[in-house]
Structures are given as C-alpha cells and as structure tokens.
Specification:
By secondary structure, the protein is mainly β. The protein contains 1 helix and 14 strands, in the order βββββαβββββββββ. The strands form 2 sheets. Strands 6, 7, 8, 9, 10, 11, 12, 13 and 14 form a 9-stranded antiparallel sheet that branches. Strands 1, 2, 3, 4 and 5 form a 5-stranded antiparallel sheet that branches. It is extended.
Length: 272
C-alpha cells in the first residue's frame, strides 16, 4: 500500500536529507515533509547520531476530511503558581490525533529558567503499551452549549436507484447497487454550525467519491461538496463533516448521491 508522508521530525542529533538530488541540513527540532514521489535518503552527521520520527498514512485514508478540518493555534495567558505549569489534553475522541508544539514564554525579564537535563525512562517498547484513558466527563469543563445528538435512520430516508434494506451485524442499513442517492429530512432548533456524522460501510477496495448537498427550506443549496467514503472491511464506520456554516432553525434536506454506489451502504445520519 502506498503511504503519504505527513512529516519527518528530527528528535535529536543532526544529519542530512538528500531529496531528489538536493541536500538539506537537519538538526534537532527540524520538521520536513517529503512528497511521496520524491526519492529521499537520510544520513547522520560524521560526529553525531540522528533520531527522527516519520508520520505516514495510507494513501486516500484522509480523504474523508474536508476543508472544515484545520490546525488550531492558540495563545493562552496564565498565572503559574508553585513554579509548575501543567498542560494536558483532557479528551481525544476516537479517530482524532493531537500533534502539539508548545512554547512557554514570559514578559518578566527577571525570571531565570534553569536548563536541567533529566534522565528519561521513555522508550518505544514502553510507548507501545501506553494506553490513553478517556477522562471522566465530570472532570471536563462544563459545556454550556452542549446539544443532544439526533439520529436519522437510513431505512427511513428517501432513496433512489437500486438498493436493498437489510440487516448487517444487528443493524439495518440501505445497501446500494449502481447509481443512487439517499435523502434525509432533518430538523434543527437553534442557529448553529451542526456536525453531520454518517454511519456507512464501503466494501470496495478503494474510496468512493460521493456528492453531499445541504438544501435549505427555500430550496437554496447551502453546501455542495464532494467527500470520499474510505473503504471499510465489512464493518460500519463513521465519517464526520459539518454544515459548513451557521444554519437557522428549520427543516433541511441532506442528500448523498453518486453515479455508482455499488458496495456502499448507509446505516444512519447523526446531527449535533
């Protein structure tokens, strides 16, 4: 399977990277991304070893994400008490990844921060056994804007084309064969950006591109996008996107269609 290089980060040491004949000097902290088609070779310096981490994904596996996905940069002002600043990520949902770069600074020029190198017991072997537990909800900040999720079943939606409603792993779904479309009628109660989560299955050996439309009560097309349904080895999977902007209270239509939906099935659409 062809992999896409999301980036190589130098953890320690120094060296060089030869990319399509061009040599790039590398040192600890450097981040480099290489095009999949490029020929690359990494080497350590004569007087130093080099350690780096390479992040890759299967080609096409990230195509379910849309332009609504983005990086987040945030500056936080805080008061440090007791000489210790603790930073953590309270909750990471399944399928999400957190790549963080944290810089700590102060405007107080009298502060002297000693650089202390501490022994670390970190190892790749230990990291393989590391399990991130989900933080209990009562320990998370209270979400004043929490909204209940509403699920719309696929078998209750309007379907066109050749399809069959049947049960798979104790869940009823709409299984398509050839050209088709599925249309859900949803209701919203607040002017918000809503999450759209499709529970689907794609038994093909490659992603399937589908057209997603969000239509307002007056017939205006609010969202017209192409999303890719990754291949799933005969199991239900969630794909998330959003309405792309604020929508008012009312009744809307969510339509997914494609010239060929063979091997694709839908279980439900969740709105939140």
């Amino acid at each position: 399977e062809r992999l896409i290089d999301l980036g190589d980060m130098v953890l320690s040491g120094k060296g060089k990277a030869a990319i399509d004949g061009e040599t790039v000097e590398l040192a600890a902290g450097d981040w480099i991304r290489v095009d999949p088609a490029a020929k690359r070779q990494f080497s350590a310096a004569e007087d130093s070893a080099i350690s780096f981490i390479c992040i890759q994904v299967k080609k096409g596996s990230l195509e379910g994400y849309t332009k609504d996905d983005r990086l987040l940069k945030k500056v936080v002002d805080c008061n440090v008490k007791g000489g210790k600043l603790t930073i953590d990520f309270p909750e990471v949902k399944a399928g999400q990844a957190v790549l963080s770069a944290i810089a700590v600074a102060t405007l107080d020029q009298t502060v002297n921060v000693p650089v202390t190198l501490q022994a670390s017991d970190w190892s790749w072997k230990a990291a393989d056994k590391d399990v991130i537990e989900k933080m209990p909800a009562e320990m998370l900040p209270k979400d004043e804007n929490a909204r209940a999720a509403v699920t719309y079943e696929a078998e209750d939606a309007k379907c066109e084309g050749k399809y069959q409603v049947k049960e798979f792993k104790k869940q009823n779904g709409v299984f398509f064969s050839g050209k088709g479309s599925i249309e859900w009628t949803i209701s919203t109660g607040l002017a918000q950006v809503y999450a759209l989560r499709f529970k689907f299955m794609n038994t093909n050996k490659q992603p399937v591109a589908v057209n997603l439309k969000l239509i307002a009560p007056n017939g205006a097309v609010l969202k017209d996008d192409t999303i890719n349904l990754p291949d799933t080895p005969e199991k239900w999977r969630m794909l998330s996107t959003t309405t792309g902007g604020y929508i008012n209270a009312g009744t809307y239509k969510v339509i997914v269609s494609a010239p060929n939906l063979s091997g694709v099935a839908f279980d439900s659409l969740e709105i939140q």
